[in-house]
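Hi R.,

Here's the chain you asked about this morning:
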Amino acid sequence: MQKRTFIAGLMATSMMVSVPALAADWDGPTTGPAAADGKSIVVVAGDLKNGGILGVTGGVEEAAAKIGWDVRVLDGAGSIQGRTAAIGQAMALQPDGLIINGFDAVEQQAALEGVVAASIPMVAWHSGPKIGCDAPGGIFANVSTDAMTVSEVAAEWAIDDGGKDIGVVIFTDSTYQIAIDKADRLKETVEAAGGKVLEYVDTPIADTSTRMGPLTTSLLQKYGDSWTHALAINDLYFDFMGPSLAAAGLAPDAGPQAGSAGDGSEAAFQRIRSSGYQTITVAEPLNLQGWQLVDELNRAISGEACSGYITSPALVTKDGLEKMGDANAFDPDIPYRDAYATIWGK
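And the predicted structure, written out as tokens:
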């Protein structure tokens, strides 16, 4: 396991970008096709209540405006049926390209086969465990950070924070293979360091608003003080944990310390900044990834190769946020907008 060093609330490692990121050279693609003119694309969002999905969608819209494309966003509203319907709506619009945003391609295999059959170029964000070029399901590029690295960083933070005597509850959603893989890596990393995983909780991300309160209360009753850390595969789980901890009379620094292995939502940043029952998140550069999705789709539409670029995540802590001012998103200080605009001839 790679050893990572924590300094003043930031993490420095060759695989990670610290927060706030220092000005740096662009590490992504520098060549590619010029902008395809006059294209219309559709984003099928898994659930716009999810801060990661929302952040990526904003980046897509910003990049689409720069490249000169029309974009339509359809919300799958957090259900399998809603996502199937959204893909159907997208097909009816006959777009020049499709972006699958934040759900497993395997879940929608039948619907996406229709997209492939219609020869509509398709890229994705977090569509499955294989990232980069030629992802399963006819996806030209699956944009993501290295999910296993993200999980390792979150688990190593918990170990660094609490030592080997930590008791961890892990939250995941077996609807998504990537969520299972991330949770498995969280568990492996904690246990390899001598920590104890008290429970591995499988509960749908889409139902966190109704499930996390009762679950938190039940887990507190079951494990008491032995529950020292909560690790989840997404920030959304912690949107609804705090009130139950507060109702149990636990101050933010006294109850289980919460850390998320993705994605760095605005709500998570606000909780971390205000000591609001979340201690860290491992954030992805969501806006940058939205720009990458548009670039990859332009490559697909133009008949050129996927870039293969993989972005780096960042460990976000309260100390780090104090150095970022009022920012509530991880937007690395690298000139990605200018880089992509140059490639597109814009």
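Confidence is low (pLDDT under 50) at residues 1-23.

Let me know if you need anything else.
M.
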